Amino acid sequence: MTAGPVASPLPPPRALYLHVPFCPQVCPYCDFHKMRRHPDLVAAYVARAAAEAAELAARWPGPLRTVYLGGGTPSHLRDDELDAVLDAIARGWGALGGLETTVEADPLTFDAARLARWRDRGVTRVSLGLQSTQDAVLALLGRTHRGRDALDALDAALASGLEVSADVITAVPGQDAERDLRAVAAAGAPHVSVYGLTIEAHTPFARRGVTVDDDRAADDFELAEAVLAEYGLERYEVSNHARPGHRSRHNPVYWKGEACLALGPSAAGLLPPQPDDPPGTVAVRVQNPTIKGWLRGDPPERTPVDGRAFALEKLMTGLRTVAGVDLGELRAATAIDAPAAFPRALASSLDGALLTLDGGTLRATRAGTRVLNAVLRRFFDEG
Ligand code: SF4
Questions:
Q1: Which of 113, 131, 181, 239 makes a 20 to 30 Å CA pair with 284?
Q2: What local confidence, expressed as pLDDT, does residue 97 receive?
Q3: What is the pTM of this model?
Q4: Each residue of 292-305: pLDDT tens digit?
Q5: What is the residue-wise DSSP string for 315-344?
Q6: Strand pairing category for 355-358 and 361-364
Q7: Ligand 1: does its nearest atom lie under 6 Å from the Cβ of 246?
Q8: What is residue 379's three-state secondary structure?
Q9: Ligand 1 within 6 A of 109 CB?
């Protein structure tokens, strides 16, 4: 591995992720940290989230540019509970409103009045867990809403004046993915995130032996780009499509390997190294404990990341985006010179027209995006 003399320090965090683990249902394909709500547990969660926000803000005062409430289902919090966590964030880092503040929401958890309330509280964007517009697909996925609810929720979100993103799951057995994609785009969603169903170990789907047809998943991946493009939504990351002016500002924090604060049980973040981290550490991954340890105030698990590992992470996430990876920025952040460090992976991917290198920026071609995991393996194998 070829490295320059010193990496530039990772700039302090300007983004915050808050994990809200409560859900109205427990979906059989989901491997996120989630649970059903119980009044005492939610009260303890809100109190601990406020305390953790104060601790984090004292150490990392911001200012923040993006706040993302994910889960779980943040919209499953009641108004007073959501107000309390938004207030805690505002106390720590200043008023929301000027930032991009996203709340993940499920259909059946909000109406026009709640959306207006969220907007008044500084929320600017709703990420709608719509998943499908087909009743049979939603039932298979274990969702409590139906197709009509999904489209009604999308209409209400679009009418609220908030930025809106809709999640669609593809490659579900029995699904007509094109019908879902067209319904969501035709309704006017300016941002659509498309995820192929994956069967994660230890989920009910895995235990039941549910399988995903790989060819079908690949076809749906192509279909998503083509169908959404008809409605003016451009794919700007493997799973994300937007009309001009409607791209997420928070998600690129992950794709570019920028620092992000983690708040809430099992939340993951990335922070600048501290003086007592091992020599060569360029960033530190942090992972909060799950709810029991988190409520006790147990500290996050810290994993120091060296320049080599950070360069590979940045290639892995950056090549998923149309913006690609600026190799000069990669060198500055990691002290790794990619052409010298990965000569064979680069040469074979450029020769095979899977990657392009233009003005110092490395990007995946359309063919490369289809086989991105195999392309990335070449870099990991050489690293
Ligand atoms: S609503 Fe989302 S986070 Fe909750 S169980 Fe379903 S897929 Fe998982």
A1: 239
A2: 81
A3: 0.96
A4: 999 999 999 999 99
A5: HHHHTTBTT-EEHHHHHHHHSB-HHHHSHH
A6: antiparallel
A7: no
A8: helix
A9: no
